Amino acid sequence: MGHLKRLAAPPHLKISVKEAVFTVCPSPGPHPKYECIPLLLIVRDYLKYAERYEEARKIIRAGKILVDGKPVKDHKFPVGLMDVLSIPETGENYRVLPIYRRGLDLVEITREESGFKLGKIIRKMHVPRGHLQITLHDGRNIRFKDVTNEIRQYSTRDTLKITVPSQVIAGYLRLEEGKYGLLVKGPKQGLHGEIIEIRRDVTYPAKPIVKLKSGMGEVSSLLDYVMVVGEEEPWIKLP
Fold first, then answer.
1. H or E segment at 67?
2. Is 75 helix (H, G, I), strand (E, B) or coil?
3. Which secondary-structure segment (H or E) carries 149?
């Protein structure tokens, strides 16, 4: 699986850089290596359910930790943006979200909210047999056999509300002005608020930008860095 030195680890991980040489290297999975939190670190360093590597690994291998409603037994599993982590024995539920100037972290949510997640559409294409396939930011692929007019409206950068683990589409958010956005990448990662302007008519090599009305005032960022998370109000609990 490879190794990951603590000095080279993402800064959002809650680990001591000088405590040891190496840390847990995430397995290949739905989220990039530097945009996730290995499951073992969540159990040991975030939730403090174990003090040592071996203890945390036993808890995970026992199937006591659920990610998106399914038990995960790989202690290196990469848990990333919008993933829902549940612990049935304690009744705790968390969602992985970006926090301003802290990066990815766990935000405790209610049991009702743990039944769904939001996925940003990053790819839309036709596949064999005339089916339409949509790929979300977490690597989830959804194939449509019967393509309706509503499904044709889905576009990249839009957001789908997906029930977990059943993976049923329960809502749709279009990226447009007036919607509620969350910055998921960049130096202003974690800020959120109403989308007040989208500028797509920029000259190359500049990229489209978006402007949000956040709690810290108006902020601008790349359009690729924003994710729609609600209508006038967010559909999920935000930090």
1. strand 66-67
2. coil
3. helix 149-152
**161-194 pLDDT tens trace:** 999 999 999 999 999 999 999 999 999 999 999 9
Q: Which residues contact 8 (CB under 8 A, 6 or more apart)?
A: none
Q: Which domains are assigned to the chain?
A: 4-80 (3.10.290.10), 115-173 (2.40.50.740), 180-230 (2.30.30.30)
State residue 10 phi and psi, 5-degree precision. Answer: -60, 140
Give me the amino acid identity at 176.
E
Q: Which residue is associated with the tokens 């990469």?
A: 78
Q: Which residue has the tokens 């840390």?
A: 23
One-letter amino acid for residue 171 of the chain: G
Distance CA 25, CA 178 (A): 40
Tokens of 184: 């998921």
Do residues 184 and 197 make contact, with C-beta atoms less than 8 angstroms apart? no
- For 100-134, how does the pLDDT look when each residue is reduced to its tens digit (9 = 90+)? 999 999 999 999 999 999 999 999 999 998 899 99
43 within 8 A of 61, measured Cβ to Cβ:
no
Contact partners, residue 171, CB within 8 Å, separation at least 6: 160, 161, 235
155 in Cβ contact with 174 (< 8 Å): yes
> What is the C-alpha to C-alpha distance for residues 40 and 36, in angstroms, rounded to an integer?
12
How far is residue 65 CA from its own chain's centroid? Answer: 18
